[in-house]
Amino acid sequence: MEAPGEAEVENEDGDSNCGDLCFMDKGLRSISELSLDSALHAINLHCNNISKITSIDHVWNLQHLDLSSNQISQIEGLNTLTKLCTLNLSCNLITRIEGLEALSNLTRLNLSYNHINDLSGLMPLHGIKHKLRYIDLHSNCIDSIHHLLQCTVGLHFLTNLILEKNGEDNPVCHLPGSSLVQNHGRVEAQLESLYRENECLRKASERDSDTIRIKCKIIDDQTETIGKLKEGCNGKASKYG
Questions:
Q1: N or C end of the chain, less CB within 10 A?
Q2: Residues 6 or more apart from 59 whose CB is under 8 A from it?
Q3: Is the domain of 228 the same as that of 142?
Q4: Over pLDDT 90: what percentage of the chain?
């Protein structure tokens, strides 16, 4: 097979240098067969024969990466892509989630149609530093509710966790309590919203209380001043009476 050489970056009108690269179903065996511009914003290499994520660490401005329907077995080589927002690795050979800890701006992750049963790579994404909101994990091998909760409950911004779609699911979906697990992200988001609302009300109440205390202090000071003036006036009246 002839190597594809340097891929041309084109938009729908055929203009180059628009920041997007689409090289689908071209028989690529390695990303290194392409010469990728570091200024690219989106890369779509869907439906090739790529087995390893390499030769992409210099594309620092990349925001969208689609490597779905390839032969990838490990999530790796992404540590420098700190601007990445969406990552599609569906329909590959991945068995565990890993290698995502540097992707603090990642909001959407599609790992459906893999062989994943180890989610421990999500734990480094816990807290407010990471922005992950949407994870599609349907058609995998997840079989433990405890492990699923342990790895996802700390994802601060998570609102959508997809374990089942169109009849394709995970073994965990057939266990008691699985529906609650799938909705926990949305429930947590609602609870967080209520918490923030209550905090705003509490702070507003404190501000109102502070205002009342200040007004009372002003009134007390004015009353004290008036009292002293009255005493002064009474003293003068007695002196000249």
A1: C
A2: 36, 37, 38, 40, 43, 81
A3: no
A4: 61
